[in-house]
Amino acid sequence: MNTLKIASRPKVRKFVPSPEQAVAMESVRRSSEWFHALPVTELAKYAGQNVAVLECRVVAATPTLAELITKIEGCDRSRLYIVPQRRSRIRFRPA
After folding, report:
1. Is 43 domain-assigned?
2. Is residue 91 part of a domain?
3. How do residues 27-63 score in pLDDT, each as one tens digit?
4. pTM beyond cutoff 0.70
């Protein structure tokens, strides 16, 4: 007769980044906060675009992810913040 063994709970360890990983994670966090704090009029430029942000500046924006990957070839990818943008729902009317 087969008896079922009850598996013990999986052990979850706290993630402790290396110093290099910590620097890269902080860079990505700052770039994310910077990008999402941009004014709506500035974000509208990137509607429908995939955007790559490095060190709080936009380094590439393309309609397709494949194009974005080729444009960011020489960048340090561990510090890149990539944002897939959806089409803007905001409509701007001339004043």
Report:
1. yes
2. no
3. 999 999 999 999 989 988 888 899 999 999 999 999 9
4. yes
